[in-house]
Amino acid sequence: MFLQQVINGLTIGSSYALVAVGFSMVFGVLELTNFAHSSVFMLGAYIAAAVLANHFGIWMAVAGSIALCGIFGILIDRMALMPMRKRGASRVSYLICTIGLSTFLQNLIQMIFGAEARPFPKVFIQGQLEFGNAMITYLQIFVICITLALMLITWFLVNYTSMGAAMRAVAQNATAARLMGINVDTTITFTFFLGSALAAVAGIMVGMYYRSVDLTLGFTVGMKTFASAVLGGIGILPGAVLGGFSIGVLESLFAGYISSGFKDAVAFIVLIGVLLIKPAGLLGKKHVSKV
């Protein structure tokens, strides 16, 4: 039973990790918690479900979901956050703005797709492998492998490309980066696009796994991925991955050994515990202000 719960936890933790990476990238660049990110994740799931329901195929669903979520990510930055940056808005203003954008997106999704839960069409072949008393389905293998592949691509992009170097420079000091000739606004916009694209893929995987999408998906997964980012060290990409998988496995073990009715509370318990014991997260370092 233990191994089975770990496999289930790694599967759902894969989605948490992908969304948490988007949280962490935006926080790393802007030091801003983007609460609209979870609604972008939900939008990705709904778009894919709608495309599949109209028999356009999985690849069209993936491409459409990534493209539209990426555009929404860009619009969030260009139409709301960039004007606030230019006016020197406070961090509280950013926070309230992203909460408002999240509410707007949820209502937009409800208006377009309706308030009822929508079935997510079956798109993956059935089958499973056995490991002793545990079983892993082909879908679970696919989800975990896709997540690891996307994490490797993101890691390569951030560490070994010119855009990745620009992202790291802006995260270090936006003013100095601008003086060095880096287009800070374009770099931030790309960060939003990349994070939103990863959230779209996570939304599709959650839809494939649970075979259903509903309007509570954004809030529920959003809080868990926020807890994942904090657990690993918000702003640190490997920390977001570690936090996502950890929350997923802990949640699954809690559901298997204690109660499935309270499994959603695990993320919040972990979040409170981390803030009390190690506020910077598992991989985070304490910042020291020099005066």
Task: Provide an overview of this structure.
It is a single chain. The chain is built from eleven helices and four strands. The termini are far apart. The chain has a two-stranded antiparallel sheet with strand order 1-4. Helix 2 crosses helix 9. With 291 residues, it is mainly α. Helices cover 74% and strands 4% of the residues. The model has no long low-confidence stretch (mean pLDDT 88). The longest helix is centred in the N-terminal third of the chain and has 29 residues.
Keywords for this entry:
291 residues; two-stranded antiparallel sheet; single chain; mainly alpha; 4 strands
Structural class: mainly alpha
What strand line-up does the widest sheet have? 1-4
Rg, alpha carbons: 19 Å
Number of strands: 4
**Distance between the terminal alpha carbons, to the nearest Å?**
54 Å
Order of helices and strands: HHHHEEEHHHHEHHH
Biggest pleated sheet:
2 strands, antiparallel
Low-confidence stretches: none
Oligomer: single chain
How is this fold's topology laid out?
Blueprint: H1 2-30, H2 37-53, H3 58-86, H4 91-113, E1 118-119, E2 128-131, E3 134-137, H5 138-160, H6 162-172, H7 174-179, H8 184-210, E4 212-213, H9 217-232, H10 237-257, H11 266-277
Antiparallel strand pairs: 1-4, 2-3
